[in-house]
Specification:
This protein is α+β, with helices and mostly antiparallel strands. It folds into 2 domains: 172 residues, no CATH class; 141 residues, no CATH class. The chain is built from 10 helices and 7 strands. The strands form 2 sheets. A 4-stranded antiparallel β-sheet has the order 1-2-3-4. Strands 5-6-7 form a 3-stranded antiparallel β-sheet. Helix 2 packs across helix 5 and helix 6 packs antiparallel against helix 7. The longest helix is centred in the middle third of the chain and has 37 residues. The mean pLDDT is 92.
Length: 336
Amino acid sequence: MDSVTHIVTGACIGEIFAGKKLGKKAMLWGAAAQTLPDVDVVTSWWMNIPDGLLAHRGFTHSLLFAVISTAIIAFFAERWHRPHNITYTKWYLFILLEIGVHLFLDVQTAYGTGLMEPFTHTRYTVNTIFVADPFFTIIPLIASIALLIIRRTSPRRMAWAVVGTVTCCLYLSYCWYHKYNIDRDAKTIFAQKKITPVKYFTTPSPLNNWLWYVVADDSKGFYCGYRSVFDKNSDIDFLYVPKNDSLLAEVADHKEVDRLIRFSNGYYTFEKRMDTLILNDLRFEQQGGWVDKNAPFVFYYYLQDKGSNDLIVQRGRFKDVNKKVFSSLIDRIKGN
């Protein structure tokens, strides 16, 4: 999830844990603890892009890191706030909960999280919510602002913190419900179209949980399409994209490609674009693919002209974003 979401959910949980004992400092502890795993973003300062992509949500998002870092932070927190009546065990459980919530939320998104690093490099994801979903974040954000304003002794503080936390749980349950229905519809449509996928995934489109992106792998290529939870027809207008593995012969640095393929969890294609070979990571959808099924993919990496790979994940996501594109997203959400 995005940093704002981690900060505000962490602040609400911190208020519930120790607001009465630590005042607004509890919010700060909660926000800091839940943001801690994202310290790995600094690795991009000295790593090449493929290594940086794998380092993010790597070891600092593992269960081992959670256990070790929690023990250290709880040790210093307990001593920093003396005298108090919060035991080391309570500090440990609080910080472990905050980091655990961070990992849990990140697993819900498409990027992939290395929960079991360094023992295995497997990335875990359930593709339930978009990495930045304003409908998930808005209530805990409002609650956090209210908690910053309301005086420490007010009985309303706990109510705001609970509302900010509970609404997140309810909205995420709502997302899981959509995920279940979209997966069920996708399997039915695969059968109708005689598509036999080796594997497939469904993930929400940008900033909402009503329009979903569906990708099925038949080992030679991918069927890509969109389906709204409000669609009445039993169909997905798929784009078929071949993997084009034969193009890999043109690439000199195979180690770099191997890292990108590992990062993509196998959902990749090679493509020639203006005499330059690129690798697409299909997990991050298409640029307005809900209105143009032949639209290019958001994540594309130049394998030959590497100087053009800045902001690799975000450049396609925000390319040509305007009122018309946003309007088309709303229209497609309404369903066919």
